[in-house]
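Students often ask why we bother encoding 3D structure as a string. The short answer is that it lets us treat folding as translation between two languages. Here is a chain of 208 residues written in the first language.
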Amino acid sequence: MDLDKGEGAADISVEENVDSFEGGAVIEPSVGMEFESEDAARKFYIDYARRVGFVVRIMQRRRSEIDGRTLARRLGCNKQGFSPNQKGTIGPDKKPRPSAREGCKATILFKMEKSGKWVVTRFVKDHNHPLVVTAHGFSTAGDKDKKIEELTLELQHQDQLCAAYREKLLRFLTNVEEQAEQLSSKVQVVVDNVRKAEAEVKKLSRHR
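And here it is in the second language, the structure alphabet:
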């Protein structure tokens, strides 16, 4: 099986959503780069794809005929190849469903050396379609869903805090109103006493 030509058994339609490295500059793959394991190589390319703006598809792998170990792995853009022209079932005209594949050639090939390390032996950088990078650098549905979940939990937490603050504020305002009523009653008592005193003074003045 020649993975450089894209031949052989393939793990098709498997799109990888893996949390990898955070922050830092985008490191572009290059032929000759070495990794300690297949998993490290795969995560590196997935992180690169996430930062650049495309989704990774697991393409093919070559296994040892002796022990079944993976000896080479090819990954690529999820828009590689072309989907069959399937017909939709909605509407009287049954229009073809839009295809997610556009014949993109972007790909990378890792091979395991005798030393056990995984080496990049082929890398095609260019895509034939626009790349989409969000403000947070997420280009996969899994990343977006996780971020949405985190933001939802944070929003719920903030709502709980707002509810607690609102309750405290209402209690404070109620207390202020009660104290204002008490103060108003005391002021009224003072006013009444002053009026009574003034009336007594006037009464005494008439009797003189």
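Translate back mentally: The CA atoms of residues 37 and 169 lie 58 Å apart. Keep this in mind for the problem set.
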